């Protein structure tokens, strides 16, 4: 008798999305969420962290390299998400990577050092992940991390090292990055992000009837059967909602 292998799935917390990936992300995988400005990459990552903690009791770490932590907390309140309450319970940790980049002291509990060093960066994330027993991790974003490095060769080395460390952490990870021109096949800024990730989700804005509409494409998801169709999604007053049947548009 052949035993059927069942992959443990981590629910995204995004209505409609898990229907497209057999119930959730494969556990302990790294997924790249790529898209242009305004497509919802950061919201996707924040929803993954918040819903994981609030609905599934899975602690998560959000590394912000673009926005201040206090701005993130204020913005997500529009979705009804109380990050601070879950931080106080030890279910969410936000790592401030912005203050050090601009040379300001951080008021946050978790913050990167002023002098950036990739090895220290990875070690610090590892310590925070272990301190709250995190099951989920988001790093927002790869271009903001790369801006701190000197050349493209170094960026590639760092991304390869990052991928190895993430697998060792035993967390399900979302990395966000800019997609310069998905229509022309240019999915990521440095041309390596999509290769180190085991999953790739593309977010896009397209004009329909003189209006911009949001679409999502699962380009790659290892150990998962998924469609290669584009699906519409919206950023509603409760967060991202994906429409698998496409009925909204």
Automatic annotation (TrEMBL):
Keywords: ATP-binding, Nucleotide-binding. Residues 8-249 form the KaiC domain. InterPro entries: KaiC-like_dom, KaiC_dom, P-loop_NTPase. One of its GO terms (molecular function) is ATP binding. The keyword ATP-binding applies. This is ATPase. It comes from Palaeococcus pacificus DY20341.
